[in-house]
Amino acid sequence: MDTRVHDILRRNQLSVTASREKILNLFLTNTRALAHADIEHKAGERFDRVTVYRTLQTFVEKGILHTIPTADNSVRYALCKNDCFEGHHHDNHYHFICSACGKTECLEEFVIPSVKVPKEYLANNVEIVVNGVCAACRKK
Amino acid sequence: MDTRVHDILRRNQLSVTASREKILNLFLTNTRALAHADIEHKAGERFDRVTVYRTLQTFVEKGILHTIPTADNSVRYALCKNDCFEGHHHDNHYHFICSACGKTECLEEFVIPSVKVPKEYLANNVEIVVNGVCAACRKK
DNA sequence: TATATTTTGCAACACAGTTGCATGTAAATA
DNA sequence: TATTTACATGCAACTGTGTTGCAAAATATA
Ligand SMILES: [Mn+2]
Ligand SMILES: [Mn+2]
Ligand SMILES: [Zn+2]
Ligand SMILES: [Zn+2]
Fold it and tell me: Looking at residue A15, what is its pLDDT?
């Protein structure tokens, strides 16, 4: 169990429970984003489906996780950087999904390009998802 | 009923049925993208849920409609331009969703900006959805 | 019009996600 | 540490969305 797990939960005024520890640990020990099903399989078996849903919901509300929109309309979750907090996400980055292995990554190192909108329109937020093949899969 | 309805169906080797006419007409007489629920309400009442699903599926396969990914994971459909055909979509544009009225538009007039990916990665396809407020809603 | 081919509606199902409520567990307090 | 209080969990039941098989109906074709 990653040592940060306990701290992150306390910092967010969450009581430390087995399911929260287990699920948060999954994200701290994996670089890739996880779908609900991944979590239910890896952490699950031991926890009720509803508990997994509620835990993920809580983590998103607290700014511990953020969701990633995908073209196939399945929700994935990834760790937020430290500057997200309750009700205020600042996840100014876009995402990459490998079509071969399904790996989903936050690309935090690149700047979101500016995107045009029609005259008189106001753009608040730009969601970008890049589909492609990751380095590991290209070598195969 | 829009005069193009019949032609579009025949051009795509689809038999002309009441549900296909009605649903296709909805898209030709609306500029905005429609969700399944919109269609079921506007065209529905008269058609079975399953028929609406199958009709939309067929239209997407034929290249008459394309789907739009949204952050809230609900599928929306919009008319393709003429250069899409069976199994080959060429919808190189991004989308705008108004957070006030829900209007969803294809922004065909702008170029998709180039987006960086990590070294050794291959980018195949970039999905962009801009959330904001449309001109009509800003004036209110 | 008669026939072959598609499409439709219905029922039944699968799956994701939500809600209410009683019980169990963690945190706060004494 | 023992007690109290607040919160998290599991279960059952439910809703919404999308799919499938099949018989009946509608369409296209000759
Ligand atoms: Mn991210
Ligand atoms: Mn479009
Ligand atoms: Zn990969
Ligand atoms: Zn609007």
Answer: 97
Look at residue A72 in the predicted model and tell me its pLDDT. Answer: 74
With contact defined as beta carbons under 8 Å apart, do B103 and B130 qualify?
Answer: no
Q: How far apart are CA A90 and CA A66, in angstroms?
A: 10
Residue nearest to nucleotide D10 (CA to C1'): A48
Distance of CA B9 to the CA centre of its chain: 16
Distances (CA, A) of B76 to A112, B71, B126: 24, 11, 18
Does B100 contact chain A (CB < 8 Å)? no
Range of the domain at B42: 3-138
Distance, Å, A10 CA → D28 C1' = 69
Q: Is A95 exposed, middle or buried (0-12, 13-18, 19+ CB in 10 A)?
A: buried
The pTM of this model reads 0.83
- The rounded average pLDDT for each run of 10 residues, N- to C-terminus, in chain B (140 residues) is 93 95 93 85 81 96 88 83 69 86 87 94 93 93
Looking at residue B51, which CATH number applies to its domain? 1.10.10.10
**Minimal Cα distance from B67: which residue of A?**
A71
Q: Average the pLDDT over A16-38 and give the result.
A: 92
C-alpha A29 – ligand 3 centre gap (Å):
18
Q: How many separate domains does chain A show?
A: 1
Of A67, A75, A98, A117, which to mutate for an interface test with B (greatest number of B Cβ within 10 Å)? A117
Chain B residues lying within 8 Å of A75, measured CB to CB: 73
